[in-house]
Design a protein that fits this description.
The structure is a homodimer. By secondary structure, chain A is α+β, with helices and mostly antiparallel strands. Chain A has 15 helices and 19 strands. In chain A, strands 12, 13, 14, 15, 16, 17, 18 and 19 form an 8-stranded antiparallel beta sheet that branches. A 5-stranded antiparallel beta sheet of chain A has the order 5-6-10-8-9. Chains A and B meet through helix 6, strand 9, helix 7, strand 11 and helix 8 of A and helix 6, strand 9, helix 8, strand 11 and helix 9 of B.
Chain lengths: ~475, ~475
């Protein structure tokens, strides 16, 4: 191991090979679910150094766990407990290489924090349309390695759809220079799309070209109260027809979710109390506030007439809009305050959501009387965070420890007839590896394994993750 | 070979294994550039039969050329001259399996003609936003196998971005059932995106789930005259800022291109004669005609004030708008009427286009005095059809035969400093295989070859194409 460490020090400088002191910021995930131990934390400063680290690890038979902001939710970015893996932190690759306002592209390194890039784009009058709760600390490389989703997918797609080009260090320690800023480029296989979402198991993303868009002239927000989830889906269809590409957000929040926010964050507003379902709509417009408001008013008034909505508010100010979004974003924190719970990051065809929820709610309540279902998410993308909390009065931790596997099975089995997914946006990591094998077809698994074997035959890159 | 044919007949029925008569509709590409000879043309009727054909070919050591509507431009869908390849036509897989209006998805088989699917979507009040010149005969499977582009990429992306799920027959003759209609699904590697654009070399697409969108309430079209290509790019930035997602088309046409249309199709309108560059703008709106027209007027009047545009018309009727588009779509025909020419399907960062064209025009004219450059394309995507025609009075065929390789090299070399691509939307096929090897990095080529070897180790699927 000393020889390996010497080679790593030669590759990146002795200061950037950490083996002592408290390394838990790298070795433990932020939800504190996994705590491994690395042979060393290695912090290269540029792509050539990343490639040198990979070659050094290959020479010494070491495997590598790439890590960005360490905000993942599935244990894909922390080392295992063996003490033999190299934790490769991309955080020092944090340069913006170019911004091209006519081509609407931003070229940045993997370690750039997402919010920093959003702000840079905004300073140029442009929008980087990737937005998620962890944006203050997650990094671009991690966003791409996990094909991050978030709140703007409805209009702009997942991280994969926002990326035009990549620079990647391969398992052989070579650099693929694929940093193209082209909207159309049919020259061979979709290497970019294959690396994106592969969670560091096929290559290490060191830089990317991201699409930008003009900043909208006005963003307006509304909240609508619906009696049923079916009504929420009807409102979604109405909003898509009426606003077209101007509809940039459509989040749903069940009453239990909003109750938890009210309980644990009483200082926050509680608009439309008593609504079984609240829908947060966002509209982005290139003209201005007045026509956008008028469109929202006309849309919501038609939805009221049709009985899809029974009450609604349009935010009167940016502060009020931010307040509504803040309530939405506080749900996970409120749920954590309430106690341990069983999280599901699922997706379904929008047309199947109401049926799925009705039947699965009923099955859960029948199997676990009094169980509380905290349901919220990105309805516009068919993505629900369908979380299950112990019945009031029961010990949360015990409930989770006892029932998590069976409840996961119940929920994931229920997805199957609807063609749903057990991982909409968080990925596989170590958490859902067994589910992947159990629920993906043997043909798909064989294809994925043969791709892994082709690109990383010696299992150097994030072994034990995804596959 | 008789044993092989017997196995194929057993797989799909004797009627669907064609070995005699005129098979040129399958064996010759529509531009009549390649004319091969197949061992047999095999026409399976469903995915199971496709899989059976692949297994039959594997058993007898035969290779397979999948074919859709046979409208490709790079020779990827016709057999070679050996007489040993099986031409697998997907045309009988032409069923629409589902349309889900709430989920905005259409599930259809590979042999469905694109225009048929567009019309079906329209009958449901929805838009299938993939549109290209060959839409009356190209098929969905071919569109996906080649990652087709076209005129709506600016807003909606290429075929890959419009596809949510695939059904694919692998080189092993198994079926991957990946027909998901989910907007978010992070369960493993991007198999869908890898098969899309692989031109039948990694698997045979038998069905797909495509995204739909609400039909816009109004579509308005304008034509603007610009003095320079730089002005066209400035107008693009202005239009993106002013119209946001409402800007759904931005095509550029050089004067030579419009002159050819006027010469060979004199009955067509010739709006804005004398414009060095004409830009066709399309706006899609969810409110109606009046606000859309007003936005166009305000945009164009600001562009006139800024000197980016020196004249402009807004179509007064659908017929007039269709006439403007018809002129644009007639350019390739007009150029064919004029004589043989050297076609380039290139893309660049939008910010680099004006410089590239200025320098490359000058280099071509210096090398080939009097040469005519017919330049038009999807400026909004950075995609130009930058075609080169013999000087007036010279024999076109001789010019092409003599100078094509050198002119290709000049143009493709000129792209390199700008990070451009020598194949924006048409793909590689056999036509650009040598360019791919010459111009793609060794790292990218090694990655692609290892993927091909992993998924199709015996080179059964479209050998000699792409790689």
């Amino acid at each position: 191991m000393n020889a390996a460490l010497a080679t790593l020090r030669a590759a990146v400088g002795a200061d950037q090979v950490l083996t002592e002191g408290d390394l838990s910021a790298f070795e433990r995930d932020w939800r504190r679910r996994w705590h491994g131990r690395a042979l060393a934390v290695v912090r290269p400063g540029n792509s050539d150094e990343v490639a040198a680290v990979v070659r050094a690890c290959a020479a010494h038979g070491l495997s590598i766990v790439p890590q960005g902001g360490n905000t993942g939710l599935v244990g894909g970015g922390v080392p295992d407990a063996s003490g033999t893996q190299v934790l490769l932190s991309l955080q020092r690759l944090n340069r913006v290489r170019a911004i091209d306002t006519a081509n609407l592209t931003l070229t940045a390194e993997a370690g750039c924090v997402l919010q920093t890039l959003q702000e840079l784009a905004r300073d140029h009058g442009l929008l980087l349309p990737l937005s998620l709760a962890a944006q203050g600390s997650c990094t671009l490389g991690g966003n791409l390695a996990t094909n991050a989703g978030g709140t703007q997918v409805l209009r702009w797609g997942n991280a994969r759809e926002l990326c035009l080009g990549l620079e990647v260090v391969t398992a052989q320690g070579e650099i693929w220079h694929g940093l193209t800023g082209l909207r159309k480029d049919n020259t061979g296989y979709a290497l970019r799309d294959l690396f994106i979402g592969s969670e560091g198991t096929l290559g290490i993303i060191t830089a990317a070209v991201m699409k930008l868009a003009p900043l909208p002239a006005a963003t307006t927000t509304a909240l609508a109260a619906c009696a049923t989830l079916q009504d929420c889906v009807a409102l979604l269809t109405r909003a898509r027809n009426g606003l077209g590409s101007g509809l940039t957000g459509f989040e749903v929040m069940g009453r239990h979710a909003l109750d938890l926010v009210a309980t644990h964050f009483p200082a926050l507003p509680r608009p439309l109390p008593g609504a079984p379902w609240a829908v947060l709509l966002e509209q982005s417009d290139h003209e201005g506030l007045a026509p956008a408001r008028a469109r929202f008013e006309s849309l919501l008034s038609a939805a009221l007439d049709a009985g899809e909505v029974f009450d609604a508010v349009i935010a009167e100010s940016l502060a009020q809009a931010a307040g509504l979004w803040h309530v939405r974003e506080t749900i996970p924190l409120a749920q954590a305050e309430e106690g341990a719970n069983i999280k599901h990051d699922i997706s379904l065809p929008v047309s199947a959501i109401a049926n799925f929820v009705q039947h699965t709610d009923a099955a859960l309540v029948a199997a676990y009387p009094g169980v509380r279902i905290v349901n919220f998410g990105h309805l516009g993308d068919g993505n629900l965070h369908y979380n299950v909390q112990a019945p009031a009065g029961q010990d949360d931790a015990t409930f989770v420890a006892t029932h998590e596997p069976a409840i996961n099975t119940l929920v994931y089995d229920a997805l199957q007839p609807y063609g749903g997914s057990f991982s909409a946006e968080h990925g596989i990591g170590v958490l859902k590896r067994d589910e992947l094998v159990a629920r993906k077809s043997p043909v798909a698994m064989a294809l994925m394994r043969s791709i892994k074997a082709a690109l990383d035959p010696h299992q150097r890159l994030n072994p034990g993750r995804v596959l």
